[in-house]
Design a protein that fits this description.
By secondary structure, this protein is an alpha/beta fold. The chain has a single domain, classed as Ribokinase (UDP-N-acetylmuramoyl-L-alanine:D-glutamate ligase, 3-Layer(aba) Sandwich), CATH 3.40.1190.20. The protein contains ten helices and 14 strands. The chain has a ten-stranded mixed sheet, with helices on both faces. A four-stranded mixed sheet has the order 3-2-6-7. Strand 9, helix 5 and strand 10 form a beta-alpha-beta unit. Helix 1 crosses helix 8, helix 8 runs antiparallel to helix 9 and helix 9 crosses helix 10. The longest helix has 15 residues. The relative contact order is 0.14.
């Protein structure tokens, strides 16, 4: 049985509001939700909502951890919290009447000496050949990416499969670590390469290059156009059905959850991609970072169009 552990080094309170912003003026907005977030937490919430067991390992600032813990419990998460001095950061998303979203992010805690040792001890105690570890979101101040890579290399040495979706990691970091799965979007692929990726054919070529460099599954999200997967079984494109989009925030995290859910069920690469797109599409139908609903996922997955490239 697959043992999924999501690692969140930089969690956040995701605060969602509605209102129209006018710069240099006082603005009245209405809060619609305040949720425990961070990319790893979002993955865990999506998995739990759809009946896939997992454990969330999350680092929390002591000053405002109580509310975060209540949200984790309310969402039914199995979690291990590691506490550190400071505050959990806030992400404020304001959605205007025309659907555009403005995001304001505050800084969070800075890691104290010894924090990564405590994280490593907890993480590596469970790392084995049945374990998948997701390292998603940014690496907080006070911890070097090289230190996180060393920890993940040690987990790989024990047989664990690693998922990375973090802008803190450079292309060189990914090629060094060789994760089991990465999920950049087109903009992130362009940032890795230092140039624009103009068409699907070029996206396929660059994803194939990453796969040939040792990354087992390269899944590139392309928004409403779907997602591309390059793996040992081939190159696949998945195109979602059209839906009414309420928010795209957290959709990428949900797509990772969908991929892991299908992998836990023993599905092949093509089916993993289809479920990833179904999770991501269903997430777009919810407010804020609310996880994709199980009924929506089950309805959308058969409607995802798959192509072999």
């Amino acid at each position: 049985m697959m043992n999924i552990i999501t690692l969140t080094l930089s969690p956040a309170f995701d605060v969602h509001c509605r209102g129209n912003l006018i710069l240099a003026h006082e603005n009245l907005v209405h809060m619609t939700a305040c949720q425990a977030g961070g990319k790893g937490v979002n993955i865990s919430r999506a998995l739990i909502r759809n009946g896939c067991p997992n454990r969330s390992l999350v680092v929390l600032g002591e000053e405002n951890a109580d509310g975060f813990l209540k949200n984790l419990s309310a969402d039914g998460l199995d979690y291990t919290a590691i506490f550190t001095p400071g505050r959990i950061r806030e992400n404020i998303t304001i959605r205007a009447e025309d659907g555009t979203e403005t995001r304001i992010s505050f800084p969070g805690f800075a890691a104290q000496p010894g924090l990564l040792d405590r994280i490593s001890e907890s993480l590596l105690s469970e790392a084995d050949s049945e374990t998948v570890i997701t390292m998603t979101g940014r690496v907080p101040e006070g911890i070097e990416v090289a230190q996180v890579k060393e920890m993940l290399h040690r987990a790989k040495g024990r047989g664990a499969r690693i998922v990375v979706d973090s802008r803190s990691f450079t292309l060189e970091d990914l090629l060094d670590l060789k994760p089991w799965l990465i999920k950049p979007n087109k903009e992130e692929i362009a940032a890795y390469l230092g140039r624009e990726v103009r068409c699907l054919q070029e996206t396929c070529r660059e994803a194939k290059t990453l796969h040939e460099a040792g990354i087992a599954n390269v899944m590139i999200s392309m928004g409403a156009e779907g997602a591309l997967l390059v793996c040992d079984e081939g190159i696949f494109l998945a195109i979602p059905p059209k839906v009414t989009v309420l928010s795209t925030i957290g959709a990428g995290d949900s797509s990772i959850a969908g991929f892991l859910s299908a992998a836990a069920d023993g599905c092949n690469g093509e089916k993993r991609l289809a479920r990833a797109v179904a999770y991501g599409t269903a997430a777009c139908m919810t407010q804020g970072t609310e996880p994709p609903g199980k009924e929506d996922v089950q309805r959308i997955e058969p409607l995802v169009r798959l192509q072999c490239r």
